[in-house]
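Task 17 of the worksheet. Students: predict the tertiary structure of the chain below and write it out as structure tokens. Keep your answer in the requested format; marks are given for formatting as well as content.
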Amino acid sequence: MSNVRYFDASWRDLTKSEGWFKKMMLLGLVSIVPIFGSIVTNGYLYGWARDCAWGVRTQLPARIFGNEDGKLYRRGFFIFVIGIVAAAIPWLISQFIEISTGFGSAAILNSLTAHYLPSYNDYGMSGVDSFARLTWTPAVITAIMVGGLASVVFSIIGTLYCFVASMRSSIYDNLSSGFQFGKIFAMIKHDAGGMARIFVMALLADIVCGLILGLVTVLIMLVGVFMFAGLMVGASSGSEPSLGFVMLMVFLVMVVLAALFYFFAVLQAIVQALVARALGYWTAQFDVPSWGAQTDPMPFERMPAVGAQAPEAPMPSVTPEYAPPVAPTAAAPASEAASEAVASQSTAEQDASAADAVAADAPIADAAASASQQAAEATQAPVAEAAPAAQAERPADEQK
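Model answer:
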């Protein structure tokens, strides 16, 4: 489980990026464009989140449309499709529950249409009367509450799925990895607490944005009320406003509404950036560089259970495409120096052993030499002694 303070880390990375607010303003403007804006925003922010998952801590990319890795639009389209599926599945499930039980929004729609389509009125009463009786029945109220709660739960599950699926699709650069439900929910289960913290962070950020937007809206409405009151006072006094003034007021109202909508889009871009960066930190705990193919076991799935014998872990068959640069370390020079020291020490030990062997053989060689010398001297001594004796005897023989 990761101990990262997701909001603090994400906010620090966002605000430390050069020109971050201008980029958020541009993202807010781009996000207003239907479909295309969502694709660009997701491709840009989740590319930044992917780098974080790989362990690369960088600032926001310099240009939103820079497309440095060539996969901005491809990645954004994948996440756009995943978002649609994540929103559609909970809605379809809730609708199925409501239709099968006859309660919820489907029951309300059935009651309202019963007035115009009598064949749908199974109770033989008008649409208004049917709706009123359904509303005040305790069992129906309970069923509607249960159905609403189920819709909320499925919506939360869909949001969590969208978070993890978007990260997997960004890392593997394909759409199919975003629909591996087993892998996705296994990751969520492995660190449900961290994912819950990110979800709460996103929820609170949306609530804060809603409060800010609501406060600004109220202030604008108050200004509009006072201006309208001034116009009414002027009209009651007999001075009717000109057509040009009325058109100007309408134009100002439209400009204010457009500015308010743009302001909300900028706030949403900031929230999306924080959530995407937090998801990058959350995914980094799964050791992304050691991932294999998208069907291979995750690193935490290859770990043995507590007390069990560790099986031989299979090597990943394919690694994800993106590999961050690895900074050089001082370990290699140290290893080379250690190897040289070991080699020098081995050479010195060999020299010392040879010297000891020579020193041990020296006395034997000296003794052998001494023995050879003594033998030679012993052999030569009788010869030397016999030679004078022979010479001494020779004159005696000659004299005879």
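Marker's comment: Residues 331-399 form the longest helix (69 residues). The two ends are 128 Å apart (CA to CA).
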